[in-house]
Design brief:
The protein has 512 residues and is mainly α. 68% of the residues lie in helices and 2% in strands. Helix 11 packs antiparallel against helix 12 and helix 14 packs antiparallel against helix 18.
């Protein structure tokens, strides 16, 4: 069998390409400084690093919008397939900015929880937390900027080995067990992804995504490779029925860690699945596979929502809600590539999926932070014991409620915009069954959100008192993220021009 020859990589390093390198190296430099200077300076270094990282993310976004072209950096000046390329298109930039905002907010939220106590002994816990947080930032940026399937494998492994320890920071038996289960699923997923990568390299002699798009052909070996990689990534994304590691891992971690795990970490592997199916596979050959992914997403919405309704603890309810909300992301596959997909419905579905990703990330980070504040105030997170709690920590429950609005899809939240666009796409393409799932999922989400809010806002029979102080600053951080989830709903309901940058002819990649 002859190996197709890829055309030369279609671009050189752009003027702002160095920003992509800095986005990866700055968090790593922060980690080196933390371990060089000791725990007394850990928090300051980490917060300063996160601030610089956020500035870099916005600078990359300004460069992309200013030139309306992807930002590219060729490592060592060598073009793929001999060299490696970092590449930021519209989708990459949206996720880099989202990640920078949420990780910076998480840093502010954790400031009081993982700070340095000058009166106490030196502790390794805070150093580990800040190190892992910066490690996740660097690894996620590498995923969003990577243009090579093996580089993406390295990046997703870095995410795994920084996320797993966050689950068991407190060292309790149940969190250790949850972390080990998470690690087992992640490693099995890694093996499958690596096998698929090896198959693709044996077929085409390159792993660069832009070059692969030029040469891939719909052969059985290609489909086997993509299937292996997809199943491996589904295990890391926790899509039903491979979700069983997620609830215990996300619910058992500290609130700041849960916020990052649920809002960002599961999105890293989902992003690679998007790259595989939209940027590597030939157009129009994967309708059957996209229907399967959409079906699994629909089952996740129904299963996750029903189980969330039955939870006794607030953090477990939010964790199962994550299982459900991840399902919406996978409705993008049949809607953007289905048999009836055509402009503008495919672009509408694509924009709706990205809005769902962003609004869920902000809403879920806010809700996990709110759950942590509830625990601080009451000493527990049992839903049956929340009666009247909103009267002593109103800002906390306001943040939880605004985040819940987005999950339900109530206007004018970001979740409403996302689900409305997907509904329009489903109806426009004649795939009405996805519209039905979206509507049922919204009703179920309303059920588990109001199950918390109604008793919390009610007047309790017995006056309850806070058992511990709640930081107003931490409440404001959670509320800010919830407001952002709401504000996304004011983005015009139309296909996003920014998300199409770099997905056109100049990249050798067709827009969905």
């Amino acid at each position: 069998m002859s190996v197709p020859v890829a055309l030369p990589f279609p671009a050189d390093t752009t003027a702002g390409g160095f920003l992509l390198v800095l986005a990866i190296l700055v968090p790593i430099a922060g980690i080196l400084l933390i371990w060089s200077l000791g725990s007394r300076q850990t928090e300051r270094i980490a917060l300063a690093t996160l601030a610089v990282g956020a500035a870099l993310a916005f600078a990359i976004g300004a460069e992309l919008l200013g030139t309306a072209r992807p930002v590219i950096y060729l490592v060592g000046g060598w073009k793929p397939p001999l060299g490696l390329a970092l590449r930021a298109d519209g989708l990459s930039v949206a996720l880099i900015v989202l990640t920078a905002i949420i990780i910076a907010a998480t840093g502010l939220f954790a400031k009081g929880q993982f700070g340095f106590d000058p009166a106490g002994p030196e502790k390794r816990g805070p150093m580990m937390f800040w190190t892992l947080l910066l490690g996740i930032s660097a690894a996620l940026n590498l995923i969003f900027l990577g243009d090579d399937l093996f580089n993406l494998f390295v990046a997703i492994e870095l995410v795994t080995f920084t996320a797993v320890p966050l689950v068991c920071l407190d060292g309790r038996t149940e969190t250790m067990r949850a972390a080990l289960r998470y690690l087992l699923f992640a490693l099995l997923g890694s093996v499958m992804y690596l096998l698929g990568t090896a198959l693709i390299y044996s077929l085409y002699g390159t792993l660069d995504i832009v070059l692969l798009k030029q040469v891939v052909q719909p052969t059985p070996l290609l489909f086997i490779a993509v299937a292996l990689m997809t199943v491996g990534l589904l295990a890391k994304t926790a899509l039903f029925p491979l979700h069983i590691w997620l609830p215990a891992a996300h619910a058992g971690a500290p609130a700041a860690a849960s916020a990052v795990l649920s809002a960002l970490v599961v999105k890293g592997s989902f992003f690679i699945i998007l790259r595989l199916w939209f940027d590597v596979l030939p157009d129009g050959v994967s309708q059957f596979g996209t229907q399967i992914l959409g079906g699994l997403g629909a089952l996740a919405i129904l299963f996750g929502s029903v189980i969330a309704l039955r939870q006794a603890r607030l953090k477990l309810l939010i964790a199962y809600s994550t299982v459900a909300q991840i399902g919406y992301l996978f409705l993008v596959f049949p809607l953007a590539t289905g048999t009836g997909a055509s402009e503008p419905w495919a672009s509408i579905a694509w924009t709706g999926g990205v809005l769902q990703l962003a609004s869920h990330a902000f809403a879920k980070a806010a809700m996990f932070m709110a759950a942590g504040l509830v625990y601080d105030a009451l000493g527990h997170d049992r839903i049956s014991g929340l009666a009247g709690a909103a009267r002593i920590i109103p800002l906390t429950f306001l943040a939880f409620g605004l985040g819940g609005m987005s999950l339900m899809g109530l206007p004018p939240s970001g979740g409403f915009s996302a689900k409305w666009l997907m509904l329009n796409s489903a109806v426009g393409e004649g795939q009405w069954w996805w519209a039905l799932i979206i509507l049922i999922g919204g009703l179920l989400a309303a059920g588990y959100v109001f199950r918390v809010l109604v008793p919390a806002a009610a007047r309790p029979r017995i006056q309850i008192k806070a058992k511990g102080p709640v930081s107003r600053c931490r409440e404001l951080v959670a509320l800010t993220l919830a407001v952002i989830a709401l504000a996304i709903g004011f983005i015009p309901l139309e296909p996003s021009a920014m998300l199409q940058i770099g997905r056109g002819v100049e990249a050798g990649v067709l827009a969905p």
